[in-house]
């Protein structure tokens, strides 16, 4: 397939006349131009196409397939929708009766979980910092399996001492922050209210100082 070409046209911009390559939208009346380097020095065809693509034009294999940025933008969602439909069609359907069923907990899985819980579960609660989620992550099994074995053979998940300590510290810090912020806001409000009086007093003092220096000069003669 031969490389496509772009027609040349003499244009004028800023009082300067130059020869430029022209591209025209096949869907509307929009046109684009790319001037030559210098008069008579042509640009490589691939660089012309890349220039127009950089300007958001859709450059086709021929002039009848060129689209300006606006027309290309309007047509792009259609292409994306087709690709999305093709991708969705390639995926297995969730309601497919032949889809693989989730793996069920076996006797060995139950034994492994039980052994781990025997190690990390204390009296009526986990030892710090363990919990159902951490056990499941450590063993690489679903959290529901861990909860099922724990409820059956050990007891409630209970509270995590480390997490309880964190919650207590968090609440204390948040209360302290609220107190400090309230005090800060009160100080800033008082400062805003006091600032006009401060400037007025400062101006009065400066005026009095100027008067005093003038009187001293006149009396000191």
Short description:
Residues 85-104 are annotated as: Disordered. This protein has 221 residues and is mostly helical.
List key phrases describing it:
221 residues, mainly alpha, 3-stranded antiparallel beta sheet, 56% helix, flat
The mean pLDDT is 81
Largest sheet: 3 strands, antiparallel
The global form is flat
Spatial strand order of the main sheet: 1-2-3
Low-pLDDT residue spans: none
The SSE string, one letter per element, is EEEHHHHHH
Classification by helices and strands: mainly alpha
**Helix content percent band:** 55-70%
Based on CA atoms alone, the radius of gyration comes out at 39 Å
Number of helices: 6
Terminal Cα span: 105 Å
Structural features, described:
With 221 residues, the chain is mainly α. Among the domains are: 8-89, no CATH class; 107-153. It is built from 6 helices and 3 strands. It has helices at residues 45-54, 69-90, 107-120, 132-139, 143-153, 161-219, and strands at 8-13, 16-24, 31-35. It has a 3-stranded antiparallel β-sheet with strand order 1-2-3. β1 and β2 form a beta hairpin. α3 crosses α5 and α4 crosses α5 (143-153). Residues 85-104 are annotated as: Disordered.
Topology, pairings included?
Layout: E1 8-13, E2 16-24, E3 31-35, H1 45-54, H2 69-90, H3 107-120, H4 132-139, H5 143-153, H6 161-219
Antiparallel strand pairs: 1-2, 2-3
Helix pairs in contact: 3-5, 4-5
């Amino acid at each position: 397939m031969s490389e496509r070409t772009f027609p040349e046209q003499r244009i004028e911009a800023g009082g300067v006349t130059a020869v430029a390559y022209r591209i025209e939208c096949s869907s509307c009346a929009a046109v684009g131009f790319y001037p030559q380097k210098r008069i008579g020095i042509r640009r490589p065809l691939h660089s012309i196409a890349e220039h127009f693509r950089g300007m958001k034009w859709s450059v086709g294999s021929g002039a009848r397939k060129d689209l300006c940025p606006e027309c290309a933008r309007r047509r792009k969602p259609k292409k994306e929708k087709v690709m999305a439909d093709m991708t969705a069609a390639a995926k297995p359907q969730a309601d497919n009766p032949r889809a693989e069923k989730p793996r069920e907990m076996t006797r060995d899985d139950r034994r492994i979980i039980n052994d781990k819980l025997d190690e990390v579960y204390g009296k009526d609660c986990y030892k710090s910092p363990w919990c159902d989620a951490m056990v499941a992550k450590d063993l690489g099994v679903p959290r529901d399996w861990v909860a099922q074995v724990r409820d059956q053979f050990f007891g409630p998940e209970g509270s995590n001492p480390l997490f309880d300590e964190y919650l207590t510290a968090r609440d204390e810090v948040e209360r302290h922050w609220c107190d400090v912020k309230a005090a800060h806001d009160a100080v800033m409000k008082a400062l805003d209210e006091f600032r006009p009086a401060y400037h007025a007093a400062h101006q009065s003092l400066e005026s009095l100082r100027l008067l005093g220096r003038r009187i001293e000069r006149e009396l000191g003669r």
